[in-house]
Design a protein that fits this description.
Length: 180
């Protein structure tokens, strides 16, 4: 349902992520767990973002980061607002991108690239220019103290709208009044 909408409350996006992650946890017999957190001042019911922006990154964290991990994995998703931009971080403690590429098939890599490319294009359209530069997302390979891969971190910057439904209603009422 949300894929048909232009903007949804962050709260709904978080609920969708939670349902998806719960299903994946069951599917993989609790081989991983997840954490979702909102920083101080983040009101998920008042921030509106385009739907399904985070899903490809969360799926990649599970399928490419945690699937090849021997011990329990963790996906952590956090949100914070700074300078009217929603910053989302998806962090996993998986095997890392290079190890995943060695273990995975070429078709799964092509699928991953397509999902990320589509999301990159969507973010570029939504964000436009942020602080005089295109800010979409960046992916960091995490390493432990010994220099071994210890997961992947994705940082996304999303221009959000506040109280989108209220704004939409007020615009609609203005249009109605102007036609009277």
């Amino acid at each position: 349902n949300n894929s048909k909408k232009s903007w949804i409350p962050l709260e709904e996006e978080i609920d969708m992520l939670r349902l998806s992650l719960d299903m994946e946890e069951l599917r993989f017999r609790d081989a991983f767990h997840y954490e979702l957190s909102c920083g101080e001042g983040v009101d998920p019911s008042a921030l509106f973002i385009p739907p399904l922006l985070l899903q490809p990154f969360v799926e990649n964290a599970i399928w490419h980061g945690l699937m090849h991990k021997k011990e329990n994995g963790l996906v952590s998703i956090s949100f914070r607002v700074e300078n009217d931009i929603l910053h989302c971080t998806v962090l996993d403690n998986g095997v890392g991108r290079s190890e995943s590429a060695n273990a995975g098939s070429k078709s799964s890599q092509a699928h991953k690239s397509m999902g990320i490319q589509i999301t990159k294009e969507r973010l570029a359209l939504i964000n436009g220019e942020l602080n005089d530069e295109k800010v979409v997302f960046n992916i960091e390979d995490m390493v432990d103290k010994a220099g071994q891969p210890s997961g992947t971190k994705v940082n996304l910057s999303i221009r959000f709208q506040q109280n989108y439904e209220t704004q939409k209603e007020s615009v609609s009422s203005l249009k109605l009044k102007s036609h009277d």
